[in-house]
């Protein structure tokens, strides 16, 4: 029990709804306002990283002298070759399976993995054969 009677709760509820609307805060479930006092952590998912299971590769760090992020379209060919071939992805029954991070990486690269463990570049006439896979412990 909160120690506040129903009439006081109703007045407080109306007060908080009014106060939230003033600065542009819109509450889609106002009946949850009384629970706000119990919140210790609040996460805002502006980018969708908490609510989406789709991973996206935006760039690579550590390939220049600075720690800046280099976008995929600006990384050297050798870096693309490593990213396109050093993974555990494979086709099983016409479906690409493997680590979600590795799948996301291969999706943004201009390289395609074939069923015969060959990766082919879409922008440069080049193909590379995956000869052996080394599985890493995480």
Explained architecture:
With 138 residues, the protein is an alpha+beta fold. It contains 3 helices and 7 strands, in the order H-E-E-H-E-E-H-E-E-E. It has helices spanning 6-21, 77-85, 100-108; strands at 59-60, 70-71, 90-92, 95-97, 111-113, 118-121, 127-129. The strands form 3 sheets. A 3-stranded antiparallel β-sheet has the order 5-6-7. Strand 5 and strand 6 form a beta hairpin. The longest helix is centred in the first third of the chain and has 16 residues, at 6-21. 7% of the residues are buried. The mean pLDDT is 80.
Which descriptors would you attach to this protein?
138 residues, alpha+beta, 25% helix, 3 helices
Brief description of this entry?
With about 140 residues, the protein is α+β, with helices and mostly antiparallel strands.
Helix content: 10-25%
User: What is the averaged pLDDT score?
Assistant: 80
Summed up, the helix count is: 3
Rg result = 25 Å
Strand order of the main beta sheet, please? 5-6-7
Pairing-aware structural class of the strands and helices? Answer: alpha+beta
The ordered string of helix (H) and strand (E) elements is: HEEHEEHEEE
Taken as a percent bin, the fraction of beta residues is 5-15%
Low-confidence stretches: none
Strand tally: 7
Global morphology: elongated
Question: Sheet with the most strands?
Answer: 3 strands, antiparallel
What's the N-to-C terminus distance? 47 Å
């Amino acid at each position: 029990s909160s120690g506040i009677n129903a009439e006081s709760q109703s007045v407080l509820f109306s007060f908080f709804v009014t106060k939230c609307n003033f600065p542009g805060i819109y509450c889609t479930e106002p009946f949850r306002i009384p629970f706000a006092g119990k919140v210790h952590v609040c996460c805002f998912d502006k980018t969708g990283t908490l609510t989406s299971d789709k991973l996206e590769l935006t760039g690579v760090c550590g390939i220049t002298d600075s720690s800046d992020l280099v976008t995929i379209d600006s990384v050297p060919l050798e870096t693309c070759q490593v990213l396109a071939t050093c993974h555990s992805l494979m086709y099983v029954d016409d479906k690409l399976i493997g680590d979600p991070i590795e799948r996301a990486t291969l999706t943004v690269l201009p390289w395609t993995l074939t069923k015969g463990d060959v990766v082919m570049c879409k922008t440069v006439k080049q193909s590379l054969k995956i000869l052996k896979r080394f599985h890493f412990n995480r």
